[in-house]
Amino acid sequence: MIRWLEQLGNNILPTLHNHLRSNLIQILPECITATLDDLIENIFGDMRAGEVLNKAILTPLNEECHLIYERVLNRIDSPEMNYLVIDDIVSDDPEERNLYLIKFLNSLTPSGLP
């Protein structure tokens, strides 16, 4: 499977041709699951917190990734932690601070943060 993933990443997998499209690839049977829960189980197994950090599910869109990882995080059996946030930017210029609405700041999901 590692060789297949390398070929996929390098865009050198053989393509399949049919009457509708010519840019199709064959997905390995072990890469196909019936449900998202099956996919999460296949990738992460028993969901030990330390092991989750070494695995990933890649998606074309960040929005899909956030939805999947929300489900992954809900399956981890560990204490939940709450963190305090400040809905403001740090700036000495009051006009600059007014440029960013709280609703906008709360909508940000920087990489590495839930």
From TrEMBL:
It comes from the Eukaryota. This is DNA helicase.
